[in-house]
Amino acid sequence: MGLLRVRRRGAYGVRAGPDGPEDRLRRFATIWSRAVFPVTSTSSTRPEFEDQLLPLARRLSEALRARTFDANEGRAVGAALVAAHCTDPEALSRSLDCVDAYLVLYCGDGGDQENLRARSARLQHAMAAGFAQALRARTLAEQEAISAAALKAQGVVAQALHATEARFRAVFEGAAIGIGIADLDGNIIQVNGALLRMFGSSEKALRTRNVQEWTHPEDAPQTWKLYDELVRGEREHYHVEKAFYRPDGTVLWTNLTVSLLRDADGEPQYQLALMEDTTERRLLNLRLRYEATHDALTGLPNRTFFFERLEKALGAGEGQRFGLCYLDLDGFKTVNDSLGHAAGDRLLVEVADRLQSCATAPGEMVARLGGDEFVALTTGPDTEREVDELAARIMNVLVAPISVDGRELTVRGSIGIVEGPAGERGPAEVLRSADITMYRAKSAGGNRFELADPEADARAITRHGLTTALPTALDRGEFFIEYQPLVHLGDGSVRGAEALVRWLHPQHGVLGPDRFIPLAEHTGLIVPLGRWVLEQSVRQAREWRERYDDAGPFRINVNLSPCQLTHPGLVQDTVDILERTGMAPDALCLEVTESALIGADDDLLKPLRRLAEMGVDIALDDFGTGYSNLANLRRLPVSILKLDRSFTQSMQQFPADPVDLKIVEGIVSLAHGLDLSVTVEGVETGAQAEQLRILGCDTAQGWYYARPGPPERLHELALVDATG
Amino acid sequence: MERPAWAPRSIDISVPSVSRIYDYYLGGSHNFEVDRDAARKAMDFMPGLPKIMQANRAFMRRAVRFAADEGITQFLDIGSGIPTFGNVHEVAQAASPGARVVYVDHDPVAVAHSQAVLAGNDDADIVAADLRKPQDILASSEIERLIDLNRPVALLLVAILHFVEDEDEPYEAVAQLREALAPGSLLVLTHASYEGIPLPEERAKGTVDVYKDIRNPLIMRSRDHIARFFEGYDMVEPGLVPMPLWRPDTTSEDEDPWAFSGFAGVGRTA
């Protein structure tokens, strides 16, 4: 021990020297702090630490020399060491070493060495006890504090967790989507109410199931591959559309998202399934799809569906062919007109049923394109033979009469057949060819089928083709006007002419108004076309008037279609044209068909009245073909009746039918009574003309006088008339 | 490992906590056996760990006093852990009575303990938040109550950044904090490094592995990488240095060789 002490003394560099007690005490504190500082945890510097030890050194020094010795001072110093963060047992050991070696030496102050050493020893014992007691107290207090902190933190965390859990529980239970959790073996662990409702199952029943049992024949091929990847941890989630069987055997369709849940270490732990019930949406989609692709009346696939299928058939690979039958019923319009639309519809339904029975093989289908037009399609490599058989079957099922409202109706049809290899033509072209071929069958008398012929196709004039060509035809000046003279029956003089529009079609030659006026009406082109005709005709009339000023009143008759009648610009257009050409309104007569004015209300008649008030003549065309409501004549703003040619036809024989004569005589008398003049059409013989003159008709037109022709022809007539 | 009867279920004390390990290094008893076990394992490789921690505390103390001398009265100590003794508020409020201190830690036990320690101190509080989410810290009600961000703040990031992995973007977090601070604010930072450790790097790695095992990886960064945290700051003399060399109160002859592990520095925003 002595050796050690000497060495320590050297180590701490303390030298003895004659100085005061305070210096000696400070020296003791310095030695002590240097010994202990390396093993403390304090953040103080060593000099600061020395300052902390100085009062402790003083206490020890005073206890050492006190009159009455109190070892408890040592306890207090031991405890103070702990308070100065000297909690390492090594700090105590070093402190005791220092006290043992230096307390008596520096603080003994020359007293009884024996007694001082004994006191020092007892102070050291007390220091050890005080240190141990304080350290124990501090340790327990800190353990208590950290435990309390942990408990409190637990409370906070538990509360937060509880709130979070309660929220998630509410979300889980209240979610509209089905949520299920299963382990990686597929055992179902937890499901929510929505999922139970989707399955119509109890939780208990569902919990006994394994996810892997939920196969369905309509599972997409990749569904279970994705599942395997997920439970192996190779995939985080997947999304599929999947069907499930409910316990009652019905099918549940879902949008299914499955996610992999991993634990804190990232190891796969559970699978989470989120499913949305799409059963109804799917049914609705199927229904909407059905409705979009099927004809409401007959339940057959409609034009849309048929085009899809035809497109597919035409896009099929090499070696694939198609055969198409385009069927139009013969005389269906008559059924509709005579028996009404309801009867027509029942007929179509029965026809549809019979047609359906003709195309039952795979790759065959029947569709209704609209009206009384049906198509049957066959596909595959052998359609050359099959399409003929198909057409024959269709003709065959139509043979038996169809009973509608107690009537036995005989139905006939015309079929156009197109057959060929896939990949050459588009659906529109194929359908056009079939349509043309069908018309060819119809023109040949109907009740037959014809095979498409490319040359015939090229020649055929289709409504479609004409309709699309109409707008450019007007721009290109393909229309022209022919004039047929109107002759005064009294003196045989030419009093005017009817303007008749023609279309010089680049491929089909001259087309009469019956070919394109309905199309123009349908597309609205009639308005610009009608305006053009009116302007041309009025200009022509002015030319005539200028040339034959002395030939008496000369009038131009122009036809108005029903569509033009309702067009708001009619009056203004007419006025403009008359003003531009400088013609008086009485030089113009607008012809309106009787049928266009049937049931006409005042709104429709208003423009005609305005024109009539201006002095434009209005002629009621084709009188006698409609209802010929004579009482109605009074309220119409017309000044001329044009008798339909059917009246004049009977007068071609000699002697004429006396009943017809009476009728014409009656009409003429009535017309004159109403201050209307009467024009007759279709006069072909001199005898007819004479008869009509006797009956009192005012004006006539017909081949007897002249066919419709170019304006120059009328010059010649008028010249003849004027000179004759 | 036995779980003491009182131990909360929701806080897993079978997992060591870096703040309780730190307390153990500093001779405290605010720790559990798991913490002590991990600390002892780490000390098997680096026996001087307590000295490093002590040097951290001593540096922090000097730096807080420096800040107080600079006139700073607001302190934000992120990663404060379990205040054993010589904490920022003690040092700061001793040097500058009325100084405001906000501590931040993400360990719920450390937060609860700090709340107990700070009870009754109106000028100090603790925020439960994570350095990796600086906006959470800046938006906290405690900051709003105690810190005026229009005046300089001493931001303390002492012995914390070496627990933030690169993928958690520590530089971004430090930059976001800097942007929130008024000119004249100080960044007080220490960071672990292989540089300065009186051991071969291979052996020091043993300690890094211990922290990896307790899922609190210790990221040793080079001096250059540590210096990057001071981007946007002007370094206060003597710059980024071993802890004992930063404005020492005494000569370094008293210092333990371990205290020179890692780096410390203070920067000032322009």
UniProtKB/TrEMBL annotation, chain B:
Keyword terms of this UniProt record: Methyltransferase, Transferase
Presence of keyword S-adenosyl-L-methionine: no
Single biological process term from Gene Ontology: methylation
Domain of life: Bacteria
Gene Ontology molecular function, alphabetical: methyltransferase activity
SUPFAM superfamilies per UniProt: S-adenosyl-L-methionine-dependent methyltransferases
Gene3D superfamilies listed in its UniProt record: Vaccinia Virus protein VP39
Any Pfam family the entry gives: Methyltransf_19
Protein name in the entry: SAM-dependent methyltransferase
Organism whose genome encodes this protein: Streptomyces lanatus
